[in-house]
Amino acid sequence: MVTKTNSSLKECTPIIEVSELDFAYGSTQALFNVSMDIYEKQVTAFIGPSGCGKSTFLRCFNRMNDLIEVAHTKGGNIKINGVDINKPDVDVIELRKHVGMVFQKSNPFPKSIYDNIAYGLRIQGIKKKEILDQVVEECLRSAALWDEVKDRLQESALGMSGGQQQRLCIARALAVKPRILLMDEPCSALDPVATAKVEELIHELKKNYTIVIVTHNMQQAARVSDRTAFFYLGKLIEYDATDTIFMNPNNEQTEAYVSGRFG
Amino acid sequence: MLSRKKTDSCTTSFSHRKSILLGLDSDSIIKKFFGSTAMVAILVLGLITIFLFKEGAGFIGLYHKSLKEYRLSGLEYVDILKEKREGYASLTRYLNDIKAEWINALRAEGLTQSEINKQVMAPEAKAFFFGYMRAGGEIRSFVKDKMDLAIASRDQHTTNENLRETLNNYVAQIKRLKESALSWSEENRNTFGLRLREAALSGSIGYDEGTDMRQRAEEVQQGAQLNLEDKELFIKLLEQEYVKVERMIQPVDFSITVKEVVADQEAYKNILIRLEKKLNDIITSSNAITFGSQSITDRIDRFKDLNAIFFNQSAIHLETLASWNSTKEVSVWHAIGAFIRGKDWITASDQQDWYGLLPLLSGSLLISLIALFFAIPFGIGAAIYVNQIAGSVERNFIKPYIEFVSAIPSVVIGFFGVVVFGEAMRFLSQSEFLHWVPFFPLQERLNAFTAGCLLALMAIPTIFTLAEDALNNIPHHFKEASFAIGATPLQTTLRVIIPTALSGIISAVMLGFGRVIGETMVVLLCAGNRIKIPDFTDGFGVFFEPVHTMTGIIAQEMGEVVNGSLHYRALFMVGIVLFFVSLLINYSAQRVVKKYGKLES
Ligand SMILES: Nc1ncnc2c1ncn2[C@@H]1O[C@H](COP(=O)(O)OP(=O)(O)OP(=O)(O)O)[C@@H](O)[C@H]1O
Ligand SMILES: [Mg+2]
Q: Which residue in A168, B19, B135, B218 has its CB near the most CB atoms, within 10 A?
């Protein structure tokens, strides 16, 4: 069953381990018995038709679903670095510093570019200007944005282009030094050029971060990810190396979806 | 069957739109309706503005005229004289104060009434306290005489003006009668009847044929047909009346009367010198009195100093009087300035009416300040709590209740303020355990603080609702972004939500301010209505002084003024100021929202 393509994947340590997760919004269940491991310093893509629960699943990793009153985990667990994140004694603030997130719609704060990135440090009580300056530059460099904005750091972030704003959001997420970066359709509002830039960035970030990305764009999943998971109606249908999913899927539904016959 | 139906409907689907009314279809009717409502609103606003300005505009001219007469008649000069007299009077009051304190001190020492009397009524004490008061008889009567002179000429002048107005009316009436045909208005018929009766009594004028006038008057008032003769007689009667009134006018020439007012400056100077000498003698002789306590001796020393200051200023005072000139030009700007910077609002006075905006404006602002001081933290705090912290159960409970407060009629709130709040405040302020508060106990139950607190109650719903809306309008994704970086809810609220909603919150505060400054009923009932600029040197005590407001004065006095009089127009001027203040507040609130309110990228 394991084909040649799989060998391109190094055997890595799992950083997120999900086992038999059931998740519901009130009485409607959104995820059914999902188990999967996500590996360190790899890009994992989630694909699947609209409403199949990709975002819900992604938001479980940093417990963003806590903000929704009716949302709750019904069964199973998620371990990050071996710790069950749904245990009551887990500090969700620490968790979110560890697991950063980038949203579908770029959402910089209505502050200056500098303040957007410094925000994550300031809320931790870091006020030293040298440290802030240094981190801002570092993060903007990692987000491949430094050269474009270094002369207008004090200008409002809302004056940037859509693609720049999205990369700024990535830079902002990096400022608190997360290990894992969750991206929910980060390019869906961007034009092809901006998309290419973000994809390049993802490629670059992979060296230091574990990335989980939700996308509707098959090519994008194929281009940027090492592994791909296909969801359908709240269930994980197939999860394998990206090449396998796209060239040689095991499941008929996966086959049909990636070849564009439904979805 | 089915298919046929389909084709049928196809052929009719491009026919004309259905007309409902006057050839208009429903869409355009709705459009017209709402368009016209907006037009009506604009029209009404325009009319109000025009009306305000039409009624208020005459004020400057009338006030200018009034101030000119104030100077020409010498009343201004008299007021300078009165200042000196007032200075002396307040020194007398100060001395009485000391006496009262002295008596209290003696009583505190445990002396009986008769023992106290013995000290206070001792000859040297009596000479001091009473002598000081009596010494001023001369200056008092001098000022009074001058004042009477000035008032008399001014009054005569005013009377003359009124009489001239009456004469003008007669002229107009006669002219109208002569021109018009035989159509008698009901009013003319009535006056004619009355005049006939009067003429019958005096018997000076009558019908040519000797018709009995009393009988004719009866007929006229019962509605008899009136003829040419009647008309001629009426005109004659009016002309007779005209002559009578004209004779009543005794022309005043201010340039002559004022001479009498400003005369005797040398005599006045001597009065002052005599007064100074007398008072100084009295004060020196007072050294013989022993007051016992140090604090009273200190006050006596202070009194002596004040006395010295009072007489040191005499030279300047006399100089001012000498250089005063009744013919000095009073500019229109002076009149405008006297309104805008005027410190007094004195109406229906026998000397000079003053229409100064400052006491009212400062009262309104002081009350608004107090109201906002309470309403801003409560209103915004509640908005933040409800929007960011409270769960949905609490939210659904708190929100309607706060908004309900705005449905309470303001007169009810005012009533509550007078009966419950004001009373409770005074009671509290008199209680023993609160005596450490510097301005307690309160003298007045109704004061700026009472009104301010109640207005705060009315402003809270406004500020709360608008601020909550502003917070609600913050896109959810800002909150998510902040949480995703590891911010706590509190950090998110303080660092992201509030700064982002700040423009909305500021405009909520400004509209709350607009609400407060325009409120009438509560201030009328609870502010104490004393027309005086609050004494800002009094520290916190200033908040507990009774004040009057711009809205209050209009509501209170508008019902009693003569239409078109100076007082009437002054109230309209206050209305205009109020209108502009509200306009400015609303405009800046809108500007704030427009300028800083762009959130979406
Ligand atoms: N806040 C919510 N309250 C209730 N139900 C929700 C909520 N958010 C999502 N759901 C439901 O959960 C299911 C999964 O939604 P989710 O947003 O995870 O899908 P998705 O795969 O991300 O879809 P898309 O590709 O369109 O983003 C859907 O059926 C949706 O109706
Ligand atoms: Mg989604």
A: A168
